[in-house]
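mind reviewing this stuff:

——
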Amino acid sequence: MFSSPASARRASGDETRLRLIAAATDAFLEAGFHAARVQKIAQRAGVRLSAINYHFESKEGLYLAVLQQHAEKALAASPLLPPGDDQPLRARFDFAVAALVSRMLDEGNHSRIGQLLLRELVNPTPALTRLVENFSLPQAQTFLQLLTEAAGPAVPREALARCLISIFGQCMVYVAGRPVITRVAPEVLAAEDVLPRITQHVAEFSWAGLQAVRRQWEGTDAPA
């Protein structure tokens, strides 16, 4: 079957859009949003500068498209919840932790959302609000429901939020602290099965912490 001129133009436009997003991803990670230059992005993508305005309207629009694509890739490759709802609680918790580790560290899922998110945390842009509303907040709410189930009804939301932040921090430190980790404890990142090892540690450490928090709030010595 032969392609029509219109479908050929759409395919060409889609290819240009993807090339710009790929080039912009590297540029934004290397230099940050403010320092990245659209001229260099277009040059790296092998397209005219006007293509950025045509497909994304502005540099800001291109940046939002980059964030959206990598967030969608992360969600598709590493969902927080396993298929079905018949798995035991600990298995679902381990699955969610594995998803977080994968999103941050697994280059095989082709999402660089961990690095992009770190850039936003260090140097926030107006896009952070949309990133949080559309990606981080829904995921946090899903994870908090899981933590509520694991810790029990006696633990208040504030304490659960701290638990969630701790779990997220354990994953994010491997992104933000890689240059230090490779110098202080290179063996941590040297193993071939580094991702499963990190996942197991974060899951076991966090689960034990959750149970300690649960005992604290269910006991007579619960915080005031």
The longest helix spans residues 5-31. The chain has two domains: 1-57, 66-218. Confidence is low (pLDDT under 50) at residues 1-9.
